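Review this today:
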Amino acid sequence: MPRVACVGGGYWGPNLIRNVHSQGALAWLCDRHPGTLAALAERYPGIPSTPDFDEVLASDVDAVLLATPAATHHDLAMRALESGKHVFVEKPLALTAAEARALAETADRLDRVLMVGHILEYHPAFERLVELVREGAIGEVRHLRSSRLSLGKLRHEENVMWSFAPHDLSLLQRVLGVVRPECIRAFGTTVLQPGIPDTVHLDLAYPGGVTAHVHVSWLEPVKLHQLVVMGTEGMLIFEDSRPVEKLRLFVSGFRLEGGQWTLRRGEARVMPFEEGEPMAREIGHFLDCIRTGARPRTDGWSGVRVLEVLEAAQQELDLPVPTRSPA
């Protein structure tokens, strides 16, 4: 079993640490905040702990898991890779595509596993959705719509697109394959904090006429995490925010007949899938890749592609909003 050092025990870190520990791979704990580190050490007695990242790099661990602020990802991940460690980084992989590309290139050059935490790609319902798409269950994919809406958590260092949309963009990427959008449009609305959009709409056009729409907001009173994949023979809905029936197949769609598009409506069918905690599957995949040398499903290059879309969309958000002069 690979020996893993978990760095960062704040908002998301405890969930990752729990899963690493449950799989018998937790070897070190690291956090720069004394109170957080003390709480982790108390919860995991016998596991060495330190506030010093250099001490982790000097240890005999095989891998480093980073759940630190996004602004630290590039520097800490690069140092870990160059010290010979395999690296897992929570999303986003870095703050720019150039930084992410440097990490992916370094991991390839040093033959180290670099994996980014796009956790929903390891959700068993989504994995089954991808299988159904590949099997042709809904015919030819024509359009995708992803919604990630909730109330908070508000952030000051990033807008809602950078906070929420990496999940959605990684799902689109997995369904469509390694393909980059040809056109990206973005529109955001700032409600609470000047210069930080609270709700964003993205429209993406892919080769072959496939389109996608992403809507993210942290101002919605009702939580909705939903991906709809529309095909010519049916539609699939993955809705992680539902307590049950998270994956449904609608035997309905649209097809080209006699030069005209026609709609066909049908009943929904709940689709079974293998149960399992997405994060446990994600961490298990990381450990397996270290053991076998396989490339992770969400490797560094998948993180690069997500950041490329985010950067292009941010350029759209930065454009001045047209205004109409009073009549």
